[in-house]
User: Fold these one by one.
Assistant:
Number 1:
Amino acid sequence: MTSTATLVTRSDDPSDPDWWRQAVVYQIYPRSFADSNGDGVGDLQGIISRVQYLTSLGIDAVWLSPFYPSALADGGYDVDDYRDVDPRLGTLSDFDELVAALHGAGLKLIVDIVPNHTSNLHEWFQEAVASPKGSAARDRYIFRDGTGADGNEPPSDWDSVFGGSAWAQTPDGQWYLHLFAAEQPDLNWGNAEVRDDFLTTLRFWSDRGVDGFRVDVAHALVKDLTEPLPSKSALPRQSESNGAHPLWDREGVHEIYTEWRKVLNEYDPPRSAVAEAFVPAARRARYASADGLGQAFNFDLLQADWDSGKFRAVIEENLALAEENGSSSTWVFSNHDVVRHATRYGLPTDPEGAWQDGKAWLLSNGTEPTVDVEQGLRRARAAVLLMLALPGSAYLYQGEELGLQEVGELPAASLQDPAYFRSKGAEKGRDGCRVPLPWTIGGLSFGFGSGGSHLLQPTWFGSYSVEAQEGDPSSTLSLYRKALAVRRGLQTGAGLDWIDDTEWALHFTRPGGWQSVTNFGAAPIELPEGAVVLSSSPLEGAKLPTDTTAWLI
Ligand code: NOJ
């Protein structure tokens, strides 16, 4: 089967409006990347000091997770002020310096924007709590009276994504909706001031040179809170979303993005945007349309079991969807919300589908399964070569280029994730993938900074460090560098052609005769004809071993 998704040749021209279609985007979680001032927290100057490392990787763009002022109730996704930098991370002038440094190195910058909720410390929410029921200040959020004789029961029995009720009570007895932590009150997108303010924010960062935006929980902004509120047992399943759920993926959300697109298109080149929208594949296309955000994350490969049939189905479906709406596919295995894939692939297969419904936040207390580290890394290396050979853009998460494993052994007392607290420890949460990067084999905080590290690094971290891998041609870091360099020369044009060898292999060709073949099976298979340019594990003569991808031309 041939897929001909709309794609353009990758270009190094900074004014190319289509730069994002084939881009390799590297996600930086700023508090855990590099710490320039020894306070144990990564910062913007730390990133600036590592621009050379980023260019040596061969990426096209950086996506920066929130760096805004925040009390960190949810790792920065609780924003106090959308148009400033957290003083612990730097200043607006550091931000300008970062933009200049990245652009000077030929890299683009995407920033996170968090429109579904502010933090409870945002001046709007402070004003809302201090204002009376029914006030204009409360209308920016979603306030309701409680139920029960004295109004001390929440307006509905809905759960927040992190566990516990989705409603919290204010001192005067009213309740506000928070789909995530109580420190993240949901905004009312029916309010014109809210809408206008986000347009101001888009312009603020675009004017400062930002090239694109990653839109947090893009599918939640518009809600139907017509009373009586349905009970949670009557809510449609999110995975079967058809626009009927009162909270997620409602049709009206697309009007917002049409408005955003007009603003983003005022710039030259137009600013890109990618939606984080957990919706079924068929509904994702709307978020990725040209008059909407343009691109949407596809987490299907991230959630798929290590199985050639499942991978192929995901790839075919997503390439077809991208072709239909003129977008380009996104591929991702890891980010700051899920267990690192080098660890996931080393876990025993979960018959209940371990990656569904947030169970990927694994390792609940006392139930850690044994991780087969060798298998995990081997599959992770095979997976990334497969992903990088696909048409579309690839999103990498800091540390995956080191083959970094999840840190499962963080002491409970040091955990920061609200998912841990709100689930009362049932979910260990996402801190294990957010531990500061190891840059050197030894030293305090393994070269992360001159001080400590805000999440404890384990002793084994040094062996995964950049320093440990730099000169080793067989290291995962070397594999990423070689793969990105080879891809840069080959990632052109549209589509792929499948070649059916065995059912446990995925083999396809790309324009220019580039072939990628992955062996998901237990036994080695014959390599196809062609010159091998790269393989994720050593070949066995003319055979491709298990859990290995090879590229040939
Ligand atoms: C998705 C972000 O990726 C996650 O880290 C955050 O907790 C939620 N959105 C809420 O903002």
Number 2:
Amino acid sequence: MRVLLIGSGGREHALAWKMAASPLLTKLYAVPGNPGIGREAELVRFDIADHTAVARFCRENEIDLVVVGPEGPLVAGIADDLRAEGIRVFGPSKAAARLEGSKGFTKDLCAKYGVPTAAYGRFGDLASARAYVEKTGAPIVIKADGLAAGKGVTVAMTLDEARTALDVCFDGSFGQAGAEVVVEEFLIGEEASFFCLCDGTTALPFGTAQDHKRLSDGDTGPNTGGMGAYSPAPVMTPEMIDRTMREIVEPTMRGMAETGAPFSGVLFAGLMITDKGPKLIEYNTRFGDPECQVLMMRLKDDLLVLLNAAADGQLAHTSVRWRDDAALTVVMAARGYPGAPEKGSVIRGVEAAAGKGVEIFHAGTAINGGALVANGGRVLNITATGRTVGEAQKKAYAALDRIDWPQGFCRRDIGWLALAREQSK
Ligand code: AMP
């Protein structure tokens, strides 16, 4: 198979690494990729926002499958435009990607199909949103409707914070994404990420994970794209997975099909496990980053076989096997992240730090004058497997400490919640 992978982060490096292990693969291209992905794929450069150019590349290079990593191109309709040209794609249509692209759309679908989620209101103007917030009181959660690069959500513990968050949305800080706002009930519980591969009709459970969104140890500091993750999530017991499938994923799949937008690709449910069971916080319509990195380390089966089955509507006849091992990834970020990360500092010792059960995925790197340099906020994902989360954590930090990059930093407590559970057993 000849495959084109779209994206340039640690998620895409993990996908490239796993696809490269498939006996089905004859050629892998990545656009734009990064130096780590470049070890697994031929990197090509063209504008992925220009879907005609993507289709032309696919025709000229006889691409059998396009795998889309990030949400942006999906929400922009890349899957529809390629399929219209007869090109096979793993990823949802524009209409189905609204599950990520519009929080209001998702909340309305949940209400219609009885999917448990936080109580909410949708508002197109400041005055009515403000009135709802004043009536409901804090804590309360304010969300810009559209994609806001992870910055559109405020968990307001006080009414003042909630008022400020509404002002920020409606003053145009998030552009069109903030023109509509969802205000919702504050949920209490433990968060978990749950993944399914979907083919329009069938959803195949595809692993669980927990991530650390906050910048600093003890889950403090500002929100980031994610500073680390591990899999599986201990809170996602087989019973909880069953309930999530029955109460959340299956009604969503049915709802999307009935709405004329059957969902195919990765359905990533951000869950709050409350004392009443799983509730949906949000959907994403692609793999999480860095959750994908730990899932790929644990996946026993051939990823390309599974992606093909999803693209061809064959998941009902497919199963998936995982290694018993846990996996954990630690993000190394460049000084300044998540604000303005410093670019260009030299990173040494990456190749030597990897080893048995340890992979180092590149997230934001570049080559400059033959040296590996930082080229983004989140730069490397030090990823390891182990019999327990604790063992995976030890291996990941031991590898990380062999990397020579004074301008990089990381959290030192990735996996703490799972570790506390393991230690209390
Ligand atoms: P989201 O971008 O929707 O995943 O939200 C970012 C983070 O905000 C989530 O990972 C949760 O920690 C938190 N959050 C979002 N919605 C709620 C809610 N209704 N109740 C409590 N926390 C929430």
